[in-house]
Design brief:
Radius of gyration: 27 Å
Oligomer: single chain
Strand content: 25-35%
Distance between the termini: 86 Å
Largest sheet: 12 strands, mixed
């Protein structure tokens, strides 16, 4: 690169370099004050690690364990028997239902709800009988969950979010779902119960995943797609229903021409009827 009049940063990954440069010019805000502040409630049987910050309005339930260096912002609710790993951050009004397990260096943004009941009801004539949800949620290390996401507890066993996965805002994760490691889940995605998402998977905005679906490692699902069948590893799919992206692009291209095709079909039908009429008249006269 020859540009002697400029100061340049030369890198094979400009996006990563951009992220690191922002960190240099905008270091993280001043550390939170340590300890339990006035107006917070911590049950006597709960255990807090060293250097924990617990803001006013926080509730920490019985037998819960909060790791070293964690920050619990105002309004955070930690139910009974919850574990939060070291240096994790619970922003305002995060809710961790009982028995939830959160790993180290996890960031849960405002309004996240982890461990609420999965959506399970058995029909009984005209009524719907609630299926008790007695499992839990496990969030592994280095996960970040955007604002107002809901991650349901399992019916039995666990719902699990894999290490390093990043989730955008307004995402619904159903009961007994497993999301693998280092996935990207974009805003307004909905994942139905018992589906299994592999490692390094990308689910773009507003993707819907039906129940009991398997999406293989490294797969990519395009925005607004509806996944109703298994997706093999490394596959790129798009559409409703989601199909291989090359086929989906052909379908989308054809959609623009549907009005013209409709007119042509109507014209051809009229011409066929006219030809049939002439043929019938010829036969009657012949």
């Amino acid at each position: 690169v020859k540009a002697p009049e400029l100061n340049l940063l030369v890198t094979p990954n400009s996006y990563l370099a951009f992220a690191k440069t922002i960190d240099l010019f905008h270091p993280e805000a001043t550390e939170s004050p340590k300890g339990v502040m006035d107006g917070a409630f911590v049950d006597g049987s709960a255990a807090l690690g060293e250097g924990v910050s617990v803001y006013p309005g926080v509730f920490v339930g019985p037998r819960s364990r909060i790791g070293d260096g964690c920050v619990l912002h105002p309004g955070a609710y930690v139910g009974a028997d919850v574990t939060v790993g070291a240096n994790s951050i619970l922003h305002a009004n995060v809710v961790l239902y009982p028995e939830t397990e959160v790993g180290a260096r996890v960031i849960l943004h405002a309004g996240v709800v982890v461990g609420s009941d999965g959506f399970g009801f058995a029909p009984d004539g005209e009524t719907k009988v609630k299926i008790q949800q007695v499992g839990r949620v496990v969030i592994e290390d280095d996960v970040e969950v955007g604002s107002n996401c809901a991650i349901d507890r399992a019916v039995l066993g666990e719902t699990r979010i894999g290490r390093g996965t990043k989730m955008d805002n307004l995402i619904q994760v159903g009961h007994n779902v497993t999301i693998g490691e280092h996935c990207l889940v974009v805003a307004q995605v909905g994942i139905s119960g018992s589906s299994v998402i592999g490692n390094q998977v990308t689910l773009a905005g507003q993707v819907g995943v039906a129940g009991h679906i398997r999406i293989g490692d490294g797969a990519e699902v395009g925005a607004k797609s509806g996944v109703v069948d298994n997706v093999p590893p490394g596959t790129k799919v798009l559409g409703l229903p989601a199909i291989p992206i090359a086929e989906a692009k052909k379908v989308l291209t054809l959609v623009r021409f549907l009005p013209d095709i409709r007119r042509e079909v109507r014209t051809m039908r009229a011409q066929i009827r006219a030809l049939e009429g002439r043929k019938g008249a010829s036969e009657d006269g012949g």
